[in-house]
Amino acid sequence: MRNYINKLQADGELRTVDVEVDPQYELAAVTKKAQLQSDDAVFFKQVKGTAFPVVTNLFSSRRRLCELIQAEDGNFCPAWNKILDETASMSVDCTRRTNAPADLVSGKLSDLPLITYHGKDAGPYFTSAIYLAKDPDTKIPNLSFHRSMYVSDDELRIRLGTSHDLAKYQQKAEKKNAALEAALLIGVSPALFLAASTSIPTHWSELALASRIAGETIETYRARTIDLEIPLAAQIVIEGRILANERRLEGPFGEFLGYYVPAAENHVFEITSVYWRKDAVFHSILCGSSEDLTLLETVTAAKMYRHLNNVLPGIVDVSCSPVLMNTIIKIRQQYEGHARQALMAAFGADLDFNKAVFVVDDDVDITNMNEVIWAFLTRGRADKRTIVIHDVPGFYRDPHKDHWGRLGIDATMPFGREAEFERKLIPGETDLNLDDYFK
Q1: Which of 5, 15, 136, 252 is 20 to 30 Å from 60 at the Cα level?
Q2: DSSP classification of residue 44
Q3: Strand pairing category for 148-152 and 155-158
Q4: Average of pLDDT values for 13-24?
């Protein structure tokens, strides 16, 4: 990650904050306002109460995500699915044991930046930490994100979503009345970060996916207190175990949908060792920000793109921006009713996030919701191009059924009438540089 930070700085995509900032609210406030101005990463040199610098907004740019997977044409979905296809044929054993780094420094949890993001958060949270654990049966390693509330130097409280692999591992261990060993990795390489953000079949290894993204074997070393191999590319490591048959109060916390998740009895992570590389940089993610959502939206869109291309022709691209709970499908119409078929195919492709689905023609920018709504409003009747499916379960964490139901919107032009909907253009507009006019 330090190499990636240096690259962003060299490319002029890193903004540096020299003044000291408070980790309680101020760091999050600066992050949020900076993200409204640009996709540049933000580097906080001085954070009150810690010796660690903090970096944020590393993965908020879709263009940079495309660069990380060598999608030079800007088309993330096909490039990402090619990587997944190649990962499927890789051996799970894609790591190489090496010695632990000579510059490791031991410490305690409170030495790290303890960042409180929102006004009603129960306390500081680790939001960018990646949990590394092994399936108790198959021993296949898994990487995943789970919010972690700081309680003391000995304890974190974490929420495990029921559909996540780590929750299944914990359940397996708990049935044997055993704790599940795990490590939190903070400040990892982009390849490890992208791999951890992706949902893949349980018999695959996220380390194999990271190896394919990086184009090299993942070097690891033996953990200090638990039976795990720690990736060399992790700057900060928190070792411990998820306790069996133990739940304690966690939350509230400002989640990605923009609301507070209320306090609830959640899992307990007992700390056994904390250490870091010399000159380590702490990675912070503001939950629900562009850095949090852009990557999740992009890999979710790639999953949808893969599914749709398996069942229908003419699928050009897919986006899940701007709020993840929606899907926008770009098609090249092949026949009358093509858009409606795409809507119906999309509804069954993702049972969590597909609350609203839009289908547009291939001249529409699917990352711009203004364009999508414009297409719907100008290309046909509103009453004939909307589908509402009632009483279908939605997002898995939904006790009040607020996310039940599906909305489908056909925003394509009538098939066979393309000439009537040719978009107006100004010659030379695309290549014009305003800097040549405003000095």
Answers
A1: 252
A2: E
A3: antiparallel
A4: 97
